Amino acid sequence: MKVVLLGPPGAGKGTQAARIAEYLNVPSVASGDLFRDHQKRDTELGRLARSYMQRGVLVPDEVTISMVTEWIETEAGDGGFLLDGFPRTLGQAEALDGALSNADGLDRVLYIRVANDELVRRLTGRLVCRECGVTFHRVSNPPPADGACGDCDGGELYEREDDRPEAVGKRLEVYFSETAPLIDYYREAGILREVDGEQSIEDVGQELVEKLGGAS
Ligand code: AMP
Q: What are the pocket residues of ligand 1 if the criterion is a CB atom closer than 6 Å to any ligand atom?
């Protein structure tokens, strides 16, 4: 099954992606993680991406599309995949359709809906584990008292540069102008399913799995 997770930054896509990929038994990738990995390895692409990510704006389509389609070609087998954070523009969505034209296209786009003020609250205060990528929140989901990750082997927690208030506002603005139009794009294609992302993590996960049902 080929599935895309769509939703604003802070909707919980990363948290749910791990669960859904496990449920479907398909490989998953977050385009933001691919960029962060390039930065860590200090590649040319990583240096290019940093200048955009720091400002909370999108990395240009051309480089993003080739990075993700390469991942699909090399990492995703015949069983499908789960994409988190890609596509994020109409250009990316059309490129993905083109890349999958020999493979029946996407089966489902799961849209996680969360109100704006809740997104701001979630993103400012988010802490991410450098080792396993699990997220905590200073107020609503605090890490263990020693400040290390409680999910893996005590990985270091950090605040993403683009989770600072200046960048959060910009990222949400970019989401509404560039990415939100994809909701209608996929609704018209008949493959969009919507989930209320303000329920508990468990309930959101369960509803997402239910909404996968009936996909070809
Ligand atoms: P995320 O981890 O999904 O919040 O992404 C962090 C940042 O990576 C975004 O603010 C963008 O600068 C960049 N990015 C991630 N995915 C994409 C994409 N599909 N298109 C363009 N830029 C992206």
A: 9, 30-32, 35, 52-53, 56, 58-59, 64, 85-86, 88, 92, 162, 171
pLDDT 10s digits, 124-153: 999 999 999 899 999 888 999 888 998 898
Say which DSSP state 162 is in: G
**Ligand 1, from 53, 67, 173, 179: best to mutate by most atoms within 8 Å of Cβ?**
53
Q: Residue 216 pLDDT > 50, yes or no?
A: no
Q: Which atom of ligand 1 is nearest to the CA of 84?
A: 3
- Nearest C-alpha to atom 5 of ligand 1 is from which residue? 32
Q: What is the pLDDT of residues 39-90, one digit of tens each?
A: 999 999 999 999 999 888 999 999 999 999 999 999 987 789 999 999 999 9
Please work out, in degrees rounded to the nearest 5, the angle formed at the alpha carbon of residue 7 by the alpha carbons of 25 and 165: 125
Q: Is 181 helix (H, G, I), strand (E, B) or coil?
A: helix
Q: How many angstroms separate the alpha carbon of residue 3 from the centre of ligand 1?
A: 18
